[in-house]
Automatic annotation (TrEMBL):
Its EC number is 1.5.5.2. Keywords: FAD, Flavoprotein, Nucleotide-binding, Oxidoreductase, Proline metabolism. InterPro entries: FAD-linked_oxidoreductase-like (IPR029041), PRODH_bac_arc (IPR008219), Proline_DH_dom (IPR002872), Proline_oxidase (IPR015659). FAD binds at residues 136, 166, 190-192, 204, 229-230. It is an enzyme of class 1 (oxidoreductase). Signal peptide: none annotated. Binds 1 FAD per subunit. It catalyses: L-proline + a quinone = (S)-1-pyrroline-5-carboxylate + a quinol + H(+). Its cofactor is FAD. One of its GO terms (molecular function) is proline dehydrogenase activity. Pathway: Amino-acid degradation; L-proline degradation into L-glutamate; L-glutamate from L-proline: step 1/2. This is proline dehydrogenase.
Length: 310
């Protein structure tokens, strides 16, 4: 409950336009701990550096709730440029996209613009043997995102497209089971948005318990599972679970956010687990940065200290 109150307070303050203006001016040096840079070359460079420690990258061009259709298509063009740049740098492209930023919910010649742009992006990634993960956003988008995921797996195959389920939503266990026929590649997360009690568990202990249930069910079903958390207890439990159930190491990977628990990321890679860091980059870093602050007071303290230093 306290987690919910803290998260709500941070996200409400962060959403204030004056706070945003001030923050944008002052916080970029601090945001760089969590964001690889503002352009493609810094994103590609970040992947190369992580690869030296045996950690793979998952690139994410920042931008969400983009309003005009033209800007959504321009955003998709930029993701395609990113995929090309990664391929040219010798990296198998692995990117994440938010369907809202490429036009989900906007019609274009009788079809959803988000779906059309996602097709172009996944088409390009699959040309290079790459992968695109459809991030999960706030709950009004869950149904449409899962439907579009189903369509896209049908067109490109589950080796080129995956999506995300959030353990804070009551519905996720059922959603997971409903996708089984696709043998889907799913990233399991706890969930980062401010959601009402009508749809999401208010208590963290329930979110954590549901997280384990989701991961275990997906692993047991034999599908590729991305265990995306920094929660060490859960990570240890998953290690024990896979050992006990004879689940091979190439059926799952641990995923964490760029700049968070780098020590743990390296440690897991050294132990021979697959590890991937989610690497955001781009000029539109503010909303992403606010969610990281909302996740833990420790990060808020880091920002306040940084601002006081000047
Ligand atoms: P939890 O919040 O319980 O934290 C466990 C421990 O990890 C904490 O005690 C702390 O030590 C450490 N920790 C966690 N967050 C930290 C932070 N920001 N800074 C420093 N330490 C931190 N969400 C979503 O809604 N849709 C999505 O598509 C995605 N995608 C995604 C991809 C990847 C690769 C990751 C890792 C996460 C996401 N998320 C997400 C975010 C996710 O929902 C969640 O908000 C964060 O991962 C934080 O939750 P944890 O699972 O780490 O646990």
């Amino acid at each position: 409950m306290i987690d919910q109150i803290y998260r709500k307070a941070v996200l409400t303050v962060a959403g204030n336009q004056k706070v945003e203006e001030l923050a944008r001016a002052r916080m970029w040096p601090l945001a760089q701990r969590f964001v690889a840079g503002e352009d493609i070359s810094s994103a590609v460079q970040a992947v190369k550096e992580l690869e030296q420690d045996g950690i793979q990258g998952n690139l994410d061009l920042l931008g969400e709730f983009i309003d005009s259709p033209a800007r959504c298509t321009e955003f998709a063009d930029n993701v395609i440029r990113l995929i090309e740049a990664a391929h040219q740098a010798g990296i198998t492209p692995y990117v994440s996209i938010k369907l809202s930023s490429v036009g989900q919910g906007k019609q274009d010649a009788g079809e959803d613009l988000g779906l059309k742009n996602a097709r172009r992006i996944i088409g390009k990634a699959s040309e290079y043997g790459g992968f695109v993960c459809l991030d999960m956003e706030d709950h009004p988008r869950t149904d449409i995102t899962l439907q579009q995921f189903r369509t896209l797996v049908g067109e490109f195959g589950n080796q080129h497209v995956g999506t995300v389920l959030q353990s804070y939503l009551y519905r996720s266990l059922q959603d997971r089971a409903g996708l089984d026929d696709l043998h889907p590649n799913i990233r399991m997360v706890k969930g980062a948005y401010l959601e009402p009690e009508t749809v999401a568990y208010p208590d963290k202990s329930d979110v954590d318990q549901n997280y384990r249930r989701l991961v275990y069910a997906h692993l047991k079903a034999g599908h590729y599972t991305n265990v995306a958390t920094h929660d060490e207890q859960i990570i240890d439990d998953v290690k024990r679970f896979v050992l006990a159930h004879g689940i091979p190491r190439d059926q799952f990977e641990f995923q964490m956010l760029y700049g968070i628990r780098r020590d743990l990321q390296k440690e897991l890679a050294q132990e021979g687990y697959r590890v991937r860091a989610y690497i955001p980059y781009g000029r539109d870093w503010y909303a992403y940065f606010s969610r990281r602050i909302a996740e833990t007071p420790r990060n808020a303290a880091f920002v306040v200290q940084g601002m006081l230093k000047g």
